[in-house]
Predict the structure.
Amino acid sequence: MLLDYFHVLMMILVAGCFVPLILFFGKFLRPSKPYSEKLTTYECGEEPVGNAWIQFNLRFYSLAILFIIFEVEIALIFPVFLIYKDQVSASFSLGSVLLFGELIFFVGILILGLAYAWVKRDLDWIRSVRIQ
Amino acid sequence: MELHFYLTISACLFTLGTIAIFWRNNLIAILMGVELVLNASGLNFVAFSKYTSASLHGQIFALFIIVIAAAEAAVALALVLRFYQSSSSVDVETANKLRH
Amino acid sequence: MIDFKTIVLIFFGALAVSSAVLVVFLRNIVYSAFSLIATFFSLAVLFIFLSAEFVAGVQVLIYVGGILILFLFALMLSQQLSQKAVKLSSTKLLPAVLLALPMLGIFLFVIYQTDWELVQNIQMEEGVASLASLLLDKYLLPFELASILLLGALVGALLLARPGEK
Amino acid sequence: MESLSIFLHNLTQQTLPLWIFVLLSIVLILFLITLPFAGFATYLERKVSADIQARIGPNRVGPYGLLQFIADGIKLILKEDIIPTASDKIFFRMAPMIVIIGSFSMFVIIPFAQKIVIADLNIGVLYILAMGSFVALGTIMGGWASNNKWSLLGGMRSAASVISYEIPAALALLNVILVSGSMSFGHIVDQQKFFNWNLFHNPFLFISFFIYFISALAEVNRTPFDIPEADSELVGGYHTEYSGMRFALFFLAEYADIFVICAVATAAFLGGWHVPFLNYENIAEGVQLPLQFIITLTKILVLFYVVMWLRWTLPRYRVDQLLGLCWKFLTPLSFLMVILTSMWMLCFGGRSFYGIIIGFFS
């Protein structure tokens, strides 16, 4: 089992030193005449004004919340799906119906969460400001 | 011996997490300390379940730790952002409205 | 002769601890967020050495692909990026270290003194299917409660993160 | 499924130690499949776009312009590589590395043939999703490190669209695990002999193939979903400040990701190297591997042609339409597919549509 992950480690090593190698060899071929105007950040030719880290609004964050909750749900569903086929294709026993019920309960609860976010209009990207 | 190796690593992570929680005055750094503590306990569970009982119960505990850490991080960071909106700073010292 | 496996194990153990030190002691908060990647990834490698490959996959999937992105979004939204390096007050460092180091001492003492009754020849049932069947017959209730916990966290976090209502 | 390194190891009767073959198999697959494909894909892309817009496309360099991508590569290597002073030096350099590591490490589990796979992990599908999140991380890091309003906003937007499209892609792949009962791509491909490709296993899996393909396209920021390169809004998205070879590395990672998406789609849904009327038992041992390799590669290239075809025919989505499509249409649909597939498996005892029909006759 460890041998497979040895392949993964080697691949990460090869990919990791692939980038610096290419950039290092390119360094001899590449011209390098940096002068100050060239090194300013690019703003369609205008003078860069102010600081780059401007304020965002919160809809990015509600998207990240939705993502992580459903990602965790997917991570938890993986084991159920692994044993679902062997359980179901064996025989039409009570066990398979129970397993199906557990699966539906788990997925149904989180579909409720998606419905909540949809009704509360958290899924819209441009939120119509509710004028109280 | 193998088990000692994993336990020392999780002990170091645990203490670093507590140092981060008590020392940093930036709320998000404190939450990172909490994540370190949760990871340390997850590692402990898996190491003990392999070496002392050769069973999979520890791995399931580590899974549930990861699930709870994700839910906790989502809610805690939402709280931090709401705190940032009301008092426009993420410093722990400014959170003293209950004091006076 | 230390074979290749223990070299990799010791390397990733040291990487986990050193990147955790960086997370705690770096002044720029975004640097500590990025060094959290190294901590989570080296922990996943340690899980693989503990023959817990499903937990390692979930660890990378949720921590590196989820929680870290959540932290980066929170850092973006709370304007933490412009301050180059916040000055870390060393006044509170002393009590924190005074509390943590004796705790570490106790941990290490306990780890190295007690003789844990170890299973001699460890034959763990390899593979994810045995983990799955254990999860669904012995730990079914926590599995179903996890979905309710996630629903609660989703609703709570969305409510908090909804702009507009004061 | 035996990995390539063990196959080569046995081929040479265990003379050299195994880890040499591990490195050899990785370098072989990387430098014989990934890099030539990524280079050739740029040429193919320009030829297809030219063909769609009724023009000729590159035909100057080499016969029919075949060496065009080598000329592009040399040009990019010779271009000056600017690192803006205001940018964050360490992470400006690290961002392309994380993106390249993320997309190259997905090549470990792609099955090209019976014995040509770097390592058939038994958490294959989970591994693909985990490595996919590294690419989103590299985008945010690149956007933040270049200290430029546009690249930060572009990085955040593309990260938002990448992570939100990961949910339907993961749910569609979950359907495949539901049907084939194992996460490793070797088992998934082995169960798709003759007619029971996963595509035709049941009608809901047919729909989740399209859900996977659409959301995987959006995950790689390809049109009609490429918000970061949207010329109308943001100058160049998160790779505005990158120039020369560093810029090319981002595109190399993008094309490698497209190859991975097409390869995963063929392995999971289109039966890998299985073709309906072909039985590999009665084919000579020597011919089997190359034949399987060619069949898999043709399927991947057909899917790649569809990806490029989409790029030059469909207009681009706005950000709110893009995220609305994901959260309001694809995610609920993929949840429905998960429920319906599990219901189908329950009623028909896990047999596929083809299996049921055969059941009637036998």
